[in-house]
Design a protein that fits this description.
alpha+beta; 14% strand; eight-stranded mixed beta barrel; 556 residues; disordered N terminus
Length: 556
Amino acid sequence: MTIRLYTSLALLSLIIFAACQQQSGTRKKTRTRDTTHYTRQDYIDQTLDSNYVNQFLTANTSYDAYDEYIRNFYRKRDFHYAWIDKNGLTEQAGNFINMMKNDAAYGIKDSSLMTPDLQQLTDTMLVSDSGLKPGDTAIPRIEMMLTAQFFAYGNKVWGGLTADSTKDLEWFIPRKKIDMESLLDSMVAKKNNAFEDDEPVNRQYILLRQQLKKLAKIATGNKWDSIRASAKSFKKGDSAEVIAQVKYRLEAFGDLPGTDSSQRFTAALDTAVRGFQDRMGIKIDGLINKSVLDALNVPVEDRIRKILLNMERLRWVPIEPVTDYILVNIPQFKMHAYEKGKLAWSANVVVGKPGANTVIFTKELRYIVFSPYWNVPPGILSKEVLPGLKRSAGSYLARQNMEIVGASGKVVAPGSINFSKYSGGNFPYVVRQKPGGKNSLGKVKFLFPNEYNIYLHDTPARYLFGENKRSFSHGCIRVSEPKHLAEWLLRDDSSWTSQKIDDLMNAGKEKFVTVKDKVPVFIVYFTAFVDHNGQLNFRDDVYGHDQKLAAALFGR
């Protein structure tokens, strides 16, 4: 609690207790005389009149959504001030005001987060060095406005600026819950720390906000034209005017140290180009080519906008777990495995192609299936499999290593089925691919049961992991290191040796294994993020989700 009274609350309790005893006629016990100077006004100046709280909330209907939270907050603290003491605004009040101003300066333009009325009142108090004057009507108003703004700010900046429902944005990870009353009580009680230290946000949010400030400075200090594209690619040892322009741009972004303005493609530039390509999700070859120039020519303002979009997504997600979990970032085409909240290893993945989007959601991984069958989903059945069966069922099934199963689970002879009668929607059988080298799921799959029928799995199409942009699947996620993932999930059981896992992956017979400790899987969509090396990364908007979110966040 930031309230600094002239006298202790303990003394106040004694005085009130003594007064009550005298009124009731009860004999009071002899106490040691306290010589501390105390006046009733000192105490009253540090508390709000409960009637004023009611009057403020009645008059300021824009805070109706937080009405009960605000009342509860003051009831629990016996209406003591949270933001003001005898010297004026507390240190924590100043921290909160600065945070709101900084957010506005770096892109959060919601005017409701720092109203002109609050701005004027706090500015007056911040420049005043005369302390508070008893009876000043601005004191309770500033107190109430700061508390109300805290709830409004927290709801938006830590909970999400866009509408409560994110389903329209195809985001099905539940939004995090924030106990704003407890958070406010904790924040105003701490001294000598900035509000940012206790923000209820994922660490990525903090990292992106730091990068946002850097880009804002670059945008202010550098006004440059686009670098003219060239049909030629440049490599280490070449000389050209465009190389000097690339150097200048990479120096501004922090990829290239120093101030080399020569036109020579140096070894340092080769390293910088490769680092920039890695950050942008471009093929890493050290060449200055069209893809590099296109990325360098993206206006800084557009990069800032993309960071703001991803900061909004980060407002929705839980604070980073401290348990084991798996995270798949769709635009990055990567899967990351975390142990006790820290990155353990990463692997390339293939995700759904546009039109067959991999869904953004979270569930718990429960099962590993070695040598799996692949049950053909309805969409693929109607578009790809049934046409083949209608042409020549027997030969098609043999080529694809498939079989047809009835409702009883028994294999049905294809000659007993009139395929011309059916489409994908009314086909009463299951077509499945048998375990083996041709199986579309490879040698192992990982199930986190969900309504979208999405899972992680191996694949025989290994060459796709060498592609730079890997959106080729029908929605499920292909993992480049499936055996490593199986070993990682089973690592706490010494009976699961590498050889045992190999044997089951190649057994040709399906085997279900229950994971002892269920592991959360987060399928996410971030087109701007800070990697484990502290580097700001950007990726293409694979499914157009950025465009939809921008319309919701920025309007036209």
